[in-house]
Amino acid sequence: MVKTTNPAAVAERLHAGAIRLLRRVRVADSEAALSAPKLSALSVLVFAGPMSLKALAAAEQVKPPTMSKLVADLEAEALAVKTVDRADKRAVTIAATAKGRTLMEEGRKRRLALLTKSLRTLSARELQTLAAAAELMLALE
Amino acid sequence: MVKTTNPAAVAERLHAGAIRLLRRVRVADSEAALSAPKLSALSVLVFAGPMSLKALAAAEQVKPPTMSKLVADLEAEALAVKTVDRADKRAVTIAATAKGRTLMEEGRKRRLALLTKSLRTLSARELQTLAAAAELMLALE
DNA sequence: ACTATTAGTTAGTCAAACTAACTATATGAT
DNA sequence: ATCATATAGTTAGTTTGACTAACTAATAGT
């Protein structure tokens, strides 16, 4: 095995690998009941809990007007609820509903099912390498 | 270290890691002269060589009309050229120009610069793990 | 108390995706 | 050989999700 520890070379391969991986996963997204940006926002609400529109927009790296529309759509489908903050009446707290949690979980499972299937063909050692790499990617500053 | 060889668990972490990584990289994209879909199409032309619109659309997983517009824009900026196929006059062959190759290369470098910088903080062993993982991701069927 | 700031929404624009429908060319079946 | 069918690409029109600018409502800071 070639020991590739040149950061630029690793960056290139890792970038290409991440693109390839997500492209594969995205194929399953077409069946989803919800678009990718909405599913993503919903998953933030589920995992990080209720938060303001501003915080949700920041978490998803979009501007408030963009998130305002996404949340309005989620609310129209009863997947999230908006409540006026008692302490600050300008602000709203957005939370996933039980229906939202369920739908998000299903979407996530469907997306991951294809990837899981691919991973089953790998050895335990290869899976360990990927697991370790995933943690490194998540920890990148 | 926990030995995570459960494919579903690895899939979940790897998916999250890939999203995180690409999101970081995308920040640098705002400075790019070309949008992500155009840069991506251009890179396919550079790396895989000239091809028909249909093939390019398939490679990018979009429908022909979508690619038709992207290519028209690339052509308007002299980053790609379209020539009618001699054997089949319905078909066109799309190729990157020298200008296109240069621009694509610059865009890629800019995108990877940030990632490379992050990777520099990692140990040689960690880089090897990521390099190995990248190859596994690229090889996934 | 008045000004400035902040949270969110509304209006309007743009890029990129789609489908449907079109033109032009190629293929194939009788 | 001709006519029907299929294929390559484009054009037209729609939708979604992103943006900025400008607005309302509420809070915070002199």
Structure explained in plain terms:
The structure is a homodimer of 141-residue chains. Chain A contains six helices and three strands. The first copy, chain A, has 141 residues and is mostly helical. Chain A has one domain (7-136): Winged helix-like DNA-binding domain superfamily/Winged helix DNA-binding domain (Arc Repressor Mutant, subunit A, Orthogonal Bundle). In chain A, strands 1-3-2 form a three-stranded antiparallel sheet. In chain A, helix 1 (7-27) crosses helix 5 and helix 3 (53-59) packs across helix 4 (64-76). The mean pLDDT of chain A is 89. Chains A and B meet through helix 1, helix 5 and helix 6 of A and helix 1, helix 5 and helix 6 of B. The structure holds a DNA duplex (30 and 30 nucleotides).
Task: Give the topology.
2 copies of one chain form a homodimer.
Chain A: H1 7-27, H2 36-48, E1 51-52, H3 53-59, H4 64-76, E2 80-84, E3 92-96, H5 98-119, H6 124-139
Chain A binds a DNA duplex (30 and 30 nucleotides) through helix 4.
Number of structural units classed as domains of chain A: 1
Our measurement of the CA-to-CA distance between the termini of chain A, rounded to an integer number of angstroms, reads 28 Å
From the structure provided, what is the oligomeric state, counting identical versus distinct chains?
Answer: homodimer
- How many helices of chain A? The count is 6
Helical fraction of chain A: 55-70%
Most extensive interface: pair and counts?
A-B, 53 and 52 residues
What percent strand of chain A? Answer: 5-15%
CATH class of chain A: Mainly Alpha
Question: Average pLDDT across residues of chain A?
Answer: 89
> CATH superfamily of chain A, please?
Winged helix-like DNA-binding domain superfamily/Winged helix DNA-binding domain
Major beta-sheet overview of chain A = 3 strands, antiparallel
N-to-C SSE string of chain A, H for helix and E for strand: HHEHHEEHH
Question: Pairing-aware structural class of the strands and helices of chain A?
Answer: mainly alpha
Architecture (CATH level 2) name of chain A: Orthogonal Bundle
Strand order of the largest sheet of chain A: 1-3-2
- Report the count of strand segments of chain A: 3
- Calculate Rg of chain A over CA atoms: 18 Å
- CATH fold name of chain A: Arc Repressor Mutant, subunit A
User: Any low-confidence stretches of chain A, pLDDT <50, length ≥5?
Assistant: none
The coarse overall form of chain A would be: elongated
